[in-house]
Amino acid sequence: MLLPGQIDFEGPFPKFSRRLRLGVVGGGRVSGMQATAARLSYRWDVVAGAMSSDPVRAKTAAADWFLDEDRCYTSFAEMAEVEAARDDGVDAVMITTPNHLHHDAAIAFLNKGIDVLCDKPLTNEVSEADALIEAAEKSGCVFGVSYVMSCFAVIRQARDLVASGAIGRINQIHVEFMQDWMTPDDVADAPHVKWRLDPAKSGKTSCVGDIGTHAAHLAQFVSGLAMKEVRADFHVCGAPKPLEDTAFMTTRFEGGVPGTLMCTRLAPGNRGGLRLRIFGSEGGIEWDLENSEQLKLNRFGQPDQIISRGHGHGMTTANERLVRTARGFPEGIIEAWGNLYTEFAMAVAARKDGIRAPSDWLGMPRVADGAKGVAFIEASFQSHQSGGAWVHI
Amino acid sequence: MLLPGQIDFEGPFPKFSRRLRLGVVGGGRVSGMQATAARLSYRWDVVAGAMSSDPVRAKTAAADWFLDEDRCYTSFAEMAEVEAARDDGVDAVMITTPNHLHHDAAIAFLNKGIDVLCDKPLTNEVSEADALIEAAEKSGCVFGVSYVMSCFAVIRQARDLVASGAIGRINQIHVEFMQDWMTPDDVADAPHVKWRLDPAKSGKTSCVGDIGTHAAHLAQFVSGLAMKEVRADFHVCGAPKPLEDTAFMTTRFEGGVPGTLMCTRLAPGNRGGLRLRIFGSEGGIEWDLENSEQLKLNRFGQPDQIISRGHGHGMTTANERLVRTARGFPEGIIEAWGNLYTEFAMAVAARKDGIRAPSDWLGMPRVADGAKGVAFIEASFQSHQSGGAWVHI
Amino acid sequence: MLLPGQIDFEGPFPKFSRRLRLGVVGGGRVSGMQATAARLSYRWDVVAGAMSSDPVRAKTAAADWFLDEDRCYTSFAEMAEVEAARDDGVDAVMITTPNHLHHDAAIAFLNKGIDVLCDKPLTNEVSEADALIEAAEKSGCVFGVSYVMSCFAVIRQARDLVASGAIGRINQIHVEFMQDWMTPDDVADAPHVKWRLDPAKSGKTSCVGDIGTHAAHLAQFVSGLAMKEVRADFHVCGAPKPLEDTAFMTTRFEGGVPGTLMCTRLAPGNRGGLRLRIFGSEGGIEWDLENSEQLKLNRFGQPDQIISRGHGHGMTTANERLVRTARGFPEGIIEAWGNLYTEFAMAVAARKDGIRAPSDWLGMPRVADGAKGVAFIEASFQSHQSGGAWVHI
Amino acid sequence: MLLPGQIDFEGPFPKFSRRLRLGVVGGGRVSGMQATAARLSYRWDVVAGAMSSDPVRAKTAAADWFLDEDRCYTSFAEMAEVEAARDDGVDAVMITTPNHLHHDAAIAFLNKGIDVLCDKPLTNEVSEADALIEAAEKSGCVFGVSYVMSCFAVIRQARDLVASGAIGRINQIHVEFMQDWMTPDDVADAPHVKWRLDPAKSGKTSCVGDIGTHAAHLAQFVSGLAMKEVRADFHVCGAPKPLEDTAFMTTRFEGGVPGTLMCTRLAPGNRGGLRLRIFGSEGGIEWDLENSEQLKLNRFGQPDQIISRGHGHGMTTANERLVRTARGFPEGIIEAWGNLYTEFAMAVAARKDGIRAPSDWLGMPRVADGAKGVAFIEASFQSHQSGGAWVHI
């Protein structure tokens, strides 16, 4: 495939003489999006799935996805078993089930030596997350976690700028994720929403585990600083519900750097307001998912700079590798997902080919990042429970 | 003066057969700005001042301001005494001294029956603020406080929209004031900055009393809800200093509505980021001082709306009264200051003429608003001192 | 595939029991982008190609694209011949060669009954374009043309708004396409640029035929008015070159509506400034490719409105059909390309299944639109040659 | 007055030991705005006026403006006579009458040795403009013309950047002025609009002479290149009217640099869209009156830069001289007007004091600039009359 930069990586991987085979575990729009992104990466074919435990719906899904009927399973356990035994079985699976099934599904495939890319939050319990780290290690499998925001090309550039000292010593970190889709009182009853408010499936949190964890990961990814402590208030701002729809937090990062974190699904007029701001002794950077192609960089005492994708507007060649579309034509989140699936493919191919991928090739989040996310969710929950005490993450 | 709308108010005031006479108490850029705005309002002439206790600098100021030398005083006490005795003495004074002098200066003029427009924070101590409320009442004088952000025409429109139910029941209130001028380590030593970090002059806080109080007033003014409780962390993010340069707060408004409030002077790339966001059950509004002519209104389920000054873009006639400039030509903060001085002039003229101005004429903040601001500053300080406990305001 | 809206269309097409088979005629980044978009649409597999007449490069392309070596041809004539004879031959081809080959390549496939999606400009000569209309008609084949800008969901919404009278009677139409990639003097020598400045390949124009024609199509697509006359000046603004890099035009649409059209590749700071503005007696709409998800709608006397993709921000359900990504997560041009390939797939499947697709299903531009584009290019060239006379299109 | 930078200029001018005395010739909102700006500059008092030839309205205006009744004249001839004879007569006048009176009014005051600041367009006829140049020269008076857009601090910065080679050799110049206030069909009948469409008062053009001339001046001021030729089409886009409401032009500047110029009052959603774009061999600059505090600078191959007022964001100290408001608080057009009146005051004081102001002090447009504007209007009219021929300016 002639897309720029990416061919540099094909050479070392004999496995890229073919596309890799991906299985889908979980249904709905999220898996559709990810499957599309996997296709976009040009390195994956979707060949099997466990989209529903209901045989009729599984069959329908097979037809919708153009899958062989006998590779549309009604359980992930069966899928792992059968696919592992096939010569043309899946090389890897994506897991996009409700949260409470992530652990069991992942274990089933790891046990069969099948690589995994799992949705966030990794699990509902810290202990399950730890178990997955261990299982991944034991199996030797690749285990990616879909903190997809870290796969935007400009976000990689932001991280590199901060690391290079462009904004000096970090003084403050602010991140928020504001959506508005839960504004109507009755939206909580919609079938694809219901499980997100059910503690048995969503875990101890709803909004925090869904989007707060994206915010926390992004802040740490770009700043290069680990979040160490959190103080949280959870709120139900709209119609009554069993879990929070909004949370306000103050945070402490390595070295005592203070910050704030907010997430809500009830901010009318905010479609996808994931906004990161990092301020330092010599400058600041700002990014907003709603305007995802632009990175604002301020170096104090100079004009503001707008860095954007496309050679010649401030991106390094290393990060341009993640760009598919010619300068001047907009990209969106599907390309960030595509980058995640490209890096996942590289890691999978490297493992199959017995190659050790240089660490700076791949920014893809891994199981350990997923586990840190679970710890953040747990700590914020504990803080909220205690009336807003500082809790170590 | 033919500016539209405003002439409607001239009729009832015999005192507007002449311009009113304003005295300036305090020097520096802030008083220059306000004097200019007073002139802009077309209802004031600046005729006297106590700009410096140093006789030489007072004389220079007189020349700079084209004032008669004998009306440039070296103390506000003398100024109050002499001006009150003159037939053509000042009708009112603006007070723009460092914070710790506000109380004494205001008392001096109130005691002589001279109306006052005082800078925020009103005082450094709650007890002093209470004393000013009492003194104002006893004197019968007009006592305005310069929470100027509430005098932007679109901010008045925002308040009216919220009051009319355009965004439904309020669910969350977020406000922040982010500046960057204190980013360089050495800026704290500049003469016009020094007093802002000196507890003897600035009071218990620096950043909170300077810009945090603007944020708190604006949130309450537009939402129509009083802030009841606050939880605060103060930070020194940049070079060491005796008072905070940054503060993060969570807040509770009437009816339990939760919110956040942030202020900092170390956010590189933020020149004047006073940003208000109020989210309700049916919509939201957002405003940013850096883009002060636009008010974003979302009514959930409809396209976002941008409301702007200039007939025909969503402003009511009542608020267009505050607009001077033809549609299509930008206004800035000087016009908000001008509105404050226009409303102050109306209140002063009404008092002189024995007219009772209908309450909906004037949105100008008064001494009671100033006292509430002092209580907010005190509560946030107490919360910070206690490690972040909720403190009643 | 579970992406919303799109499954509604699967039912009537037995051919969608499988993915359709696409062949690629032409190489380079443009075909890579389109192939990716075809995959994104989930209705196409890329199975064959004529990417280069050089056998070695054809082989490399086959490997890059994961194609069977025997389906990577060195001529489109051979490809048409062989693929037409295969049971699993391509259902359709995309043509992305340099302009001067479009006609011959398209004829080769039409003659074999293979559907075609051809890049713009359709041809370099009006006579060739007419020949393609005739050949398409005779063959009964589907013939799409890649004016992809008309496939953004918000552009469809813009068209519907104008048609519904939201802006009243149209008074003015302005469109411009401003890029900056040709700013450096030496860029014209780059291999992928060279043919664009070679009259033998690019035709009588370079910038006009490449991006001016996008602008002209978009203006007509959204306004619903045909462009009737044009007056043009061509310029070489940068380094000397055999064809124009910039053109300024004034235009006349049906009913005498006046307009302007500009295109240039030398506007530093403009990455992809395709900007459309249509003003009417009661309002106006504005769109900019650099901010492609937002459509500005003004209804005179009301606040400006920002219409965006995602249910509940002003898009109709009919246009939401073209949206893949959940509200709040950005889309880019790949999704517009995907929409083009989805509509092309529907048209191809309908033909194969003997179904007549209702005309309002498909906004995809067709061969007749392509021919109108060629006529526009020719007319603007004639006008330029004549020193700026009005020329009928 | 303590506003920064400006005091540097007080020293050399003995006349600034007092404020200068300004007379107003012409009524309505425009003169109100300018009078306010003159007050804002802190160097002018408004002391006399000829606001109406109707004695009753003149009296009302005197009251509105707080002027002495005996200095509110019903003719400018009388005003010139009487004021010239007074010891405390006006130092200068602003002329804001309808266009056709500019010449006679200006002559009346020049003949009495009174300095003039005249609205644009300077006159309706080229011959009258030439006569004013001559009269100004003979009288030795200061003669400013209110091309106020050139008095924004960031516009001065733009000019300096272009002059310093920041964007290389200029290749293209685009400017447009788009308003929407004339969209409603009945607005042309409003009393303050009527004269603008009456050829006897407005001259041969309406929109071009009102706002097109602003656009033409701005393009030349910032680029430093004179506009040499123009080709124009005038349009009546809305309700029928005797003069154009819209014009589209192509232009040629010194050295053959091509450009475009558009103006219209019927672009709904455009409040004050005066937009300038200059593209060169190494970069480009863009400015929009609707976002007047930001100047976009692109240097090709680098991130876009946003230059803004306020020390440390890319403005030079020389241009910061024109800034009144602290960094972070927005300015608008009143400050540009204020800058014009400041520079006019300096020129007037310099003349009175017999000082020759260094030429780089004052960017204020002069009578020669006004005459060039008249020539531009005439040339565009001739071009339109001839069906769009190139006409030399």
UniProtKB/TrEMBL annotation, chains A, B, C, D:
Residue ranges constituting the Gfo/Idh/MocA-like oxidoreductase N-terminal domain according to the UniProt record: 21-147
InterPro entries registered for this protein in UniProt = Gfo/Idh/MocA-like_OxRdtase_N (IPR000683), Gfo/Idh/MocA_oxidoreduct (IPR051317), GFO_IDH_MocA-like_dom (IPR055170), NAD(P)-bd_dom_sf (IPR036291)
Q: Provide the protein name.
A: Predicted dehydrogenase
Q: Which organism is it from?
A: Cognatiyoonia sediminum
Please provide an example of a Pfam family that matches this protein in its UniProt record: GFO_IDH_MocA_C3
Q: What is the lineage of its organism?
A: Bacteria, Pseudomonadati, Pseudomonadota, Alphaproteobacteria, Rhodobacterales
A single MF term (Gene Ontology) = nucleotide binding
Q: Where is the GFO/IDH/MocA-like oxidoreductase domain?
A: 155-286
